[in-house]
Amino acid sequence: MNGIATPNLGWPTDGEVRPMVIGVAGGSGSGKTTIAHAVFQNVGAEQVSLIQHDAYYRDSAHLDLEERRLINYDHPDSLETELLIHHLQELRAGRAVEVPVYDFSVHTRTAATVHVEAEAVILVEGILVLAEPELRKLMDLRIYIDTDPDLRFIRRLSRDITERGRTVESVTDQYLSTVRPMHLQFVEPSKRYADIIVPDGYNHSVVGTVTSMIRNFLDERRLEARGA
């Protein structure tokens, strides 16, 4: 783990209390989702909102299934990041949002949404959350999970077969044609924007560190609210 930069702790210059936004990035299969969920569980759902960038894949219902399968889902253009940015702005302003639900087995959004309340801390995770400048501007702390490519591929293969009904051949083809090239072009370079770089995937130490930072922030937030 590199040196930890002191985050802004969610205090705007006008003194208004707002949520702390934490971005967790890393390659597909890096362990970022596991870390984000561990922090979420440690702190508690009553104080943390968790949003996944891959819920915001663009709706491609107007295309047939074969056309949807050919989309490069590892390119930033495949994600409706502008909607995620809007949702984060809403949450920072204290307003709840309706997050899309994406069905990876058929490569399109469902009609359902997930209601997310504006909690004191907002965790947003995804492979490209640090690659988008306008998204980074909304974050108070940026974390990058740096994991070896072979381990990431094995994890992705297992996940996509088990959870998304994919075949070994389709996962491998996608990895070679889009996942790896897009990782090198967009995901890996975004590491330079991280305040914390976590080596070798899931790390109990970094989960504990981030959990402690959040709890300290929440304590300061409560004290500030009492003094207001």
Features:
7 strands, 228 residues, two-stranded antiparallel ribbon, alpha/beta, 5-stranded parallel β-sheet, single chain
Description:
Residues 1-14 have low confidence and may be disordered. The N and C termini lie far apart (37 Å). By secondary structure, the protein is of the alpha/beta class. A five-stranded parallel sheet has the order 2-5-1-6-7, with helices on both faces. A two-stranded antiparallel ribbon has the order 3-4. Strand 3 and strand 4 (108-116) form a beta hairpin. The chain is 41% helix and 19% strand. The radius of gyration is 18 Å and the shape is globular. The protein has seven helices and seven strands; from the N terminus they run βαβααβββαβααβα. The longest helix is centred in the last third of the chain and has 24 residues, at 204-227. The protein has a single domain, classed as Rossmann fold. Helix 5 (149-164) crosses helix 6 (168-187).
Average pLDDT for all residues: 88
Order of helices and strands: EHEHHEEEHEHHEH
**CATH topology tier name:** Rossmann fold
At CATH's second level, what is the architecture? 3-Layer(aba) Sandwich
What is the strand arrangement across the widest sheet?
2-5-1-6-7
The global form is globular
- Count up the domains: 1
Terminal-residue CA separation: 37 Å
Helix percentage range: 40-55%
CATH class: Alpha Beta
What would you report as the Rg, rounded to the nearest angstrom?
A: 18 Å
Secondary structure tally: strands: 7
**Strand-residue proportion:** 15-25%
Main sheet properties: 5 strands, parallel
Low-confidence stretches: 1-14
Say which CATH homologous superfamily is assigned: P-loop containing nucleotide triphosphate hydrolases
Q: Number of helical segments?
A: 7
User: What class do helices, strands and sheet pairing give?
Assistant: alpha/beta
